Amino acid sequence: MSRKLVIHIGAQKCASSSLQASLDLLAEVAKDDFGFCHLKPELLRMANQALDRNEGSAFDYLDEVLAFQTGSQVVISHEMLGNRPGLVSAIAGRALAKHDFGCVVISGYSRLQSSFHVSEFSQWGFRGRAKLYADRDVFLVHKLNWRKFTALERSLFAFSLGGADRDWFADYQALCDGVNGFGGAVNVVSCHMPTRSRPYALLEHFLSSTGLSIGLENFDSFDLRKNNAFHPVLIHAISAHLAELQPQHQSFFPGPHEGNDWLFRVCSRLPKRVNLLASRFDLLFPPLLREVLIGHLDSRSFASNQQYCDLMSVDIGYFKPSQGAQVLSKEELLAVAREASEVRNLEDIQQFNREIENECMQAIRAEIVAG
Q: What pLDDT band is residue 51 in, cutting at 50, 70 and 90?
């Protein structure tokens, strides 16, 4: 039987960490029949840069990885590969020509653009000071009081006005075009990641869609979930605090990609009464604005998503906007934001922010003292 290589390309915020953890655990059990490698991002970047410069060292790291994997079925994975179709096609060609693989499958997952943006904000954006300042400035330019909006609302609004959506069709068309020359030896497969409304077993789907055969009857114990969400109170407190700081002022809060474990420990120390505070969110920040902005984002990317679904045989139901959602003009977006601003009470919001920050600071102090 010819050897098969599967290149898992992510994308970011599309359950990649969960799938990688599952595959790592599965490789420990399957042993010689199945191999898995979570690629090192810094070495991948170097490989991509060397490939762009047409340097002979471009494949040093990847050759080392592929040569080490001796099983008949091998998966290599990193979410940054989804942004580098040229590198992916080069890896596929190298695997066929130099490493005795008879076929290659490129596998990736997608996500509704609004969900992608909200997830990215909730993981990283709420503590990225440059992004918080940039979103704040959008409101200042349009003479809107930014303090009357949550950081997520400001992020969605700024993105709605000028951000570029993740274009899954363009991404996967580039991947398909890049491997056309390999004929039937290389295939590209994709699907929207599991959702609450449309759930499925991610690991089992990955193995089935890529044609991997693992001699186990049940994969439930291997289907892991990583990247738990931060508590919404912590997200609001940190983003509100950082947005008020001037650029020259320092903060001890971890930035994006920093201190995740520490932040999760702080979340676990938040008192139960913060849930009562969280229940006031929708009173102070009525959800209509978020719903309108999300509907706008989903509507403006729908045509491209339809093309992606047609190309990769994905259920378009994952990408349908909510009922009544529509693409809004700049003037209409500004009108919605102004209407939200007019009905919100700044003093109540600032008092709420102080309460939220105090609760989080107590939890942070408790974690520091315990450490």
A: very high
Distance CA 234, CA 119 (A): 15
* pLDDT range class, residue 78, cuts 50, 70, 90: very high
Amino acid at the residue 58? A
Contacts of residue 313, Cβ cutoff 8 Å, sequence gap at least 6: none
d(C-alpha 190, C-alpha 106), whole Å:
8
Partnered with residue 75 across adjacent β-strands are 6, 36
Query: pTM to 2 decimals?
Result: 0.92
CB of 94 within 8 A of CB of 62?
yes
Helix %, strand %, coil % of the chain (to 5): 65, 10, 30
Tokens 């449309």 correspond to 198
Secondary structure class of 69 (helix, strand, coil): coil
Whole-angstrom Cα Rg for the chain: 23
Alpha carbons 92 and 89: distance in angstroms, whole number: 5
CA 174 to CA 172: how far, in whole Å? 5
Q: Which residue carries 């209407």 as its tokens? A: 339
Which residues have CB under 8 Å from 315's CB, separation 6+?
192, 198, 309
Task: Read off the tokens for 322.
Answer: 């909510």
User: At residue 200, what are phi and psi to the nearest 5 degrees?
Assistant: -160, 165
Per-residue pLDDT band for 301 (boundaries 50, 70, 90) equals very high
Contacts of 261 (CB under 8 A, 6+ apart): none
Q: How far apart are CA 76 and CA 34, in angstroms?
A: 11
Q: Look at residues 235, 307, 241, 223 and name the one whose alpha carbon lies nearest to residue 267.
A: 235
One-letter identity of residue 47: A
Q: What angle do CA 281, 283, 285 make, to 5 degrees?
A: 60
* pLDDT given at position 274: 84
In the chain, the amino acid numbered 240 is A
DSSP 103-165: EEEEEEEE--HHHHHHHHHHHTGGG-HHHHHHHHHHHHHTT--GGGS-HHHHHHHHHHHHPPP
